[in-house]
């Protein structure tokens, strides 16, 4: 399937044939595919789960005028006011290569669906990837500093791939003071993809907004598609769907011809014309199913209509948050236990690993996620080359050598336990129906495993999420 990526980058299409073509970046997962050994390392898995929960618990909810929005949680300490959401250079982040400046500098640009800021983080740690402003002839210094500590807003030339254009773009350049411990962190760029400016801390214009204002793109959609566990395509201003469809059609035609030489000799295999291939690719790429964003304004949260296990509906009407940097599927405890109750022979692990459940390896369930007008089987197929587990992609590895039980990729979340909304300001008052300061008590976190089965389009103007089979 990786061959599709090579073909697709040559002929890139769009979501609904806008006037301007989308911009396409190849993306990679830092550190490679998420670990999938034959025998699961429960200690490592628990550590990774805690990292995920820490990222989500870094935010809370607040009232702004007459709506509920998601905001960074207030921290305490001498450096707290200069701490940005997101971990630049974190192992497991999906990232693209940002080409910036003259001469061109290549900087790893992490993608983050939970934050809204577009910034470059520059430290003296010697780790990560570096943007050296003093080495760029096109760098324009900011006239005034940003209100956010340690950050300013300069401009420089950004070179856009696939469309082969270069334009000046402003961004937040943040450089912590040398005496601060944060200067030991990795350097790099960070692109927040959250749909709301409520999560912006620097209050600068996003990359996508600037591309629209400069008439580089006119379709206010970005999209993600994963080719495997470590490679994918990130598109701004449309999607890569037509190109991936075209590559798949051409590859399938070529495989048929190569495998059936006798049919080719007899003239029974007729190649489709370029026009026929293009028409089929465009038509198939328009088959999107859309869901409106809901919940507290800030993240890509939608409603999952149902979860089906082996043909039986186990759960319905579950709110989910989409996040490509989460390597699991996190479910509220009650929902997770109801889900595994539907899988014959499954069982919850004892503490301290009781957030995980095991199931019979050689009888993996068939699982479907249902959205508005769409029902898709997920976690199907084999793992990436070089990894093995008898439980397939639903498995995080066997419990032990010789065990017939595998650890499931759906795990229990312990987030959302906290104080009522408003208590952080010392105003407890009457309890609100929004229990748990961050509002995650009843929400699923649907991460990277689901992105392996579905291509996503995110409309940040209309605030809706589109899905299509990969």
From TrEMBL:
PROSITE patterns: PEPTIDASE_A1. It comes from the Eukaryota. Residues 1-16 form the signal peptide. The keyword Ion transport does not apply. Keywords: Signal. SUPFAM superfamilies: Acid proteases. InterPro entries: PEPTIDASE_A1 (IPR033121), Peptidase_aspartic_dom_sf (IPR021109). Residues 94-468 form the Peptidase A1 domain. This is Peptidase A1 domain-containing protein.
């Amino acid at each position: 399937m990786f061959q599709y990526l090579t073909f697709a980058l040559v002929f890139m299409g769009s979501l609904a044939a806008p006037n301007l073509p989308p911009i396409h970046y190849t993306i990679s997962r830092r550190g490679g595919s998420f670990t999938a050994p034959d025998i699961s390392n429960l200690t490592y898995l628990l550590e990774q789960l805690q990292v995920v929960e820490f990222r989500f618990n870094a935010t809370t909810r607040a009232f702004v005028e007459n709506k509920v929005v998601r905001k960074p949680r207030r921290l305490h300490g001498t450096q707290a006011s200069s701490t940005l959401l997101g971990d630049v250079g974190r192992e497991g982040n999906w990232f693209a290569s940002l080409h910036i400046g003259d001469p061109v500098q290549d900087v790893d640009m992490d993608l983050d669906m939970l934050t809204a800021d577009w910034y470059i983080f520059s430290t003296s740690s010697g780790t990560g990837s570096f943007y050296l402003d003093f080495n760029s002839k096109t760098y324009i210094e900011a006239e005034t500093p940003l209100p956010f500590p340690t950050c300013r807003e300069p401009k420089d030339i950004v070179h856009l791939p696939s469309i082969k254009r270069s334009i000046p773009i402003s961004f937040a350049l943040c450089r912590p003071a040398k005496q601060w411990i944060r200067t030991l962190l990795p350097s790099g760029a960070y692109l927040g993809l959250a749909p709301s400016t409520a999560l912006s801390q620097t209050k600068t214009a996003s990359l996508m907004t600037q591309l629209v204002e400069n008439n580089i793109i006119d379709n206010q959609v970005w999209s993600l598609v994963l080719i495997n566990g470590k490679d994918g395509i990130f598109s701004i201003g449309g999607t890569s769907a037509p190109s991936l469809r075209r590559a798949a059609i051409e590859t399938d035609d070529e495989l048929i011809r190569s495998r059936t030489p006798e049919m080719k000799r007899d003239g029974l295999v007729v190649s489709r014309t370029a026009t026929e291939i293009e028409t089929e690719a465009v038509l198939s790429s328009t088959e999107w199913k859309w869901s409106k964003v809901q919940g507290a304004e800030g993240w890509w949260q939608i409603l999952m209509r149902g979860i089906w296990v082996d043909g039986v509906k186990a759960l319905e009407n579950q709110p989910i948050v989409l996040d490509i940097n989460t390597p699991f599927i996190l479910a509220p405890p009650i929902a997770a236990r109801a889900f595994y109750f539907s899988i014959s022979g499954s069982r919850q692990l004892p503490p301290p690993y009781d957030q995980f459940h095991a199931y019979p390896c050689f009888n993996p369930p068939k699982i479907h996620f249902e959205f508005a007008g769409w029902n898709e089987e997920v976690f199907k197929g084999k793992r990436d080359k070089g990894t093995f587990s008898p439980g397939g992609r639903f498995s995080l590895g066997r419990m032990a050598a010789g065990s017939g039980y595998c650890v499931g990729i759906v795990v229990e979340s312990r987030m959302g336990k906290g104080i009522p909304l408003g208590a952080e300001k010392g105003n407890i008052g009457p309890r609100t129906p929004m229990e748990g300061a961050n509002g995650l008590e009843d929400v699923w976190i649907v991460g990277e495993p689901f992105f392996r089965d579905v291509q996503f389009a995110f409309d940040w103007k209309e605030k809706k999420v589109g899905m299509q089979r990969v």
